[in-house]
Amino acid sequence: MEPYIKKLSEIIRNTDMNNTYKMVWIRSIVETCVLEPYKKTIRFDDLSPKIFGYYWNQTIFFDLEQGPNPRKRPEIHQMVLEQVHRYREEQDSQPVFFSKISDCISIPVSKISSVLKKDVCHRFQKSNEIYELDRESRTIRPHQPDLIRDYSDVLFDLINYRWTQELETFNTSPRISKKVKGTDRERIKRKPLTKFRKYLDLENTQRICFHTGVQIEAGNLSIDHVIPWSYLFSDDLWNLVYVDKSHNSSKGNRIPSEETIKRLEDRNKNLLSEIKLSGLEDKQVEELKLSIEGDYVRKSWVGCKG
């Protein structure tokens, strides 16, 4: 491996972190070297929208924390959270990748650039090992941008790995590595839940809304994740119920109450009994059994609250 890339890899692998700033910083530099190969001088203002986008994707899909204290989040993450909340209120409750709505979002470029100058740029490297830094003009000049571009795939993987390690210290959410990879490559897809109807119909023949207790009108039937999908990143029979579409769209990513969790646990036991009577056996049924035996509902709920 080239000495320059070896040094950069060592820094990524071993640098101290108390939030994820250093990883979004170097990732934005690598991405710039790939996408704009003729740019020798990189302004902090060029990096700011990219960094905003990384945080946007991880926040709007999974609400991942980027630092150890939810009451005092990293400044850039706070800026992103403000825009995510505004988007959810004004535009759409459905998560969407930053690349698709970047023109509709007010990105505080100068504020992000100021944080990069104050807290990040000089702390990533001990001296001018990777880039020449001019804090006053808010610019850097990578020493070997061509090598960064040539080794970008390796560097992206290493950055994501280190980023995942850091996120795991701040978040109890499962499947962190898949979530980072999914938001990085924009490959998150919500699969249709219609295949679960044959199971839910066995226990809920009248199609009563789990949350309101009222029978759902024709055309208003929806399947809901009781524990938010953004936490589990998974579609599991033990976490799915029938709800009225209007209630499902207004619920968002709110954490369910303990009373709701208790009702879900009871529902799962009843559902398994009905499935046994029907003679149906497959992977979904086996996972339902395991969820009851392993107390998945309550454990996931506690983890979600954490």
Detailed description of the structure:
It contains 15 helices and 5 strands. The strands form 2 sheets. A 3-stranded antiparallel sheet has the order 1-3-2. Strands 4-5 form a two-stranded antiparallel sheet. The relative contact order is 0.11. The longest helix is centred in the last third of the chain and has 21 residues, at 258-278. It has 306 residues and is mainly alpha-helical. α2 packs across α3 (44-62), α3 packs across α4 and α8 (152-170) crosses α9. It has helices at residues 3-14, 21-35, 44-62, 75-90, 98-101, 109-120, 145-150, 152-170, 176-185, 197-203, 229-232, 245-251, 258-278, 283-293, 296-305; strands at residues 42-43, 131-134, 139-142, 221-225, 240-244. Helix content is 57%, strand content 7%.
Helices and strands in order, then pairings?
Layout: H1 3-14, H2 21-35, E1 42-43, H3 44-62, H4 75-90, H5 98-101, H6 109-120, E2 131-134, E3 139-142, H7 145-150, H8 152-170, H9 176-185, H10 197-203, E4 221-225, H11 229-232, E5 240-244, H12 245-251, H13 258-278, H14 283-293, H15 296-305
Antiparallel strand pairs: 1-3, 2-3, 4-5
Helix pairs in contact: 2-3, 2-8, 3-4, 3-6, 3-9, 8-9, 10-13, 13-14
Strand content: 5-15%
**Poorly predicted segments:** none
Number of domains: 2
Order of H and E elements: HHEHHHHEEHHHHEHEHHHH
Secondary-structure-derived class: mainly alpha
| Mean pLDDT over all positions | 93
Total helical elements: 15
Instruction: Summarize the biggest pleated sheet.
Output: 3 strands, antiparallel
Cα radius of gyration in angstroms: 23 Å
Q: How much helix, percentage-wise, in residues? A: 55-70%
Question: How far is it from the N-terminal to the C-terminal residue, by CA?
Answer: 42 Å
Strand order in the largest sheet: 1-3-2
DSSP, total strands: 5
